[in-house]
Amino acid sequence: MNYTLRQLQVFRAIANHGSITKAARHLHLTQPAVSLQFKSFSEQFDFPLIEYQGKKLVITPLGKEVKIHAERILDQANALKLMNESLKEELTGTLLLSIVSTGKYVMPYLLGEFLEKYPATDLIMDVTNRSTVVDHLIDNSVDFALVSVVPSKPELNKLTLIENELVLVGNEVYAQRARKNLDNCRFLFRETGSATRHAMEEFVASQDIKADRILELTTNEAIKQSVMAGLGISLMPKIGIKRELDQGLIHIIPHEALPVTTQWNLVWRKNKKLSPVASSYLEFLESRLSHFTSKFNR
């Protein structure tokens, strides 16, 4: 059997993305080039690695086994490359992160000091919705994810970081109205699957609030702008609206059942072999945890 690292990379990308076109886009290659590399690789096996069910590309059982071995080989090859770089006494490599959208208010502060200490380290951070973050963990395509509610699958390790305080907010006019009675207020919700939406649904249900109407928006920024525009009230992470609170653009609506306090958690797959840069970042966070806790929770 005679395969190249590029062929392994191509097959892994096809398996991860379920599409030759998407794999080509991910690898920054043309589709014909990816097809040719995959053909040369797959012809070395007596049984198919992929099959088509209608128009859908599906990885066969053999293909799944080959993918596992391909990932191990690629990880080992990358480790050799990083070992060579480490001889230069400089940490190198790429830190791969996937974070839920509200985590964008937290994660940069947890990265700045580390990236300054290791300037040769690269960063790829995907800010997305919770379901995509979970997909990244399942695909094992990232080093770490930042979430407030830890997914039940896959099996994960976690490092609890700082508090995530959720407060009920509105603009000045809506906040005055809501302080008198939350019934018949318009509530702005995040999309289904969002941890913030889950917390808000539990709050509304536990307090037997009869919402006038529910509007659904898919980003925290859209919620914030809509609150300021007077479209309704919403439960939001306080860390993401500090400036608007200070400027009087958004007002906290007091309630005996609030705030809702959860925790931000850094999670990664159990038994995952961390790269040197990922291991260094985890050690950095553990060593600076008390500093970040006091900074954000005061």
Q: Segments where pLDDT lies below 50 for 5+ residues? A: none
Distance between the termini: 60 Å
Q: Biggest β-sheet, characterized?
A: 7 strands, mixed
Specify the CATH class of the largest domain. Answer: Alpha Beta
Class by alpha and beta content = alpha/beta
Radius of gyration: 23 Å
> Which superfamily, in CATH terms, is the homologous superfamily of the largest domain?
Periplasmic binding protein-like II
Q: Can you walk through the features of this model?
A:
By secondary structure, this protein is of the alpha/beta class. The chain is elongated. Helix 1 (5-17) packs across helix 2 and helix 1 packs across helix 4 (61-86). The chain has 3 domains: 5-84, Arc Repressor Mutant, subunit A; 90-162 and 263-297, D-Maltodextrin-Binding Protein, domain 2; 164-262, D-Maltodextrin-Binding Protein, domain 2. The protein contains 11 helices and 11 strands. Strand 1 (50-53) and strand 2 (56-59) form a beta hairpin. The model has no long low-confidence stretch (mean pLDDT 91). The termini are far apart. The strands form 3 sheets. Strands 3, 4, 5, 6, 9, 10 and 11 form a 7-stranded mixed sheet that branches. Strands 1-2 form a two-stranded antiparallel ribbon. Strands 7-8 form a two-stranded parallel ribbon.
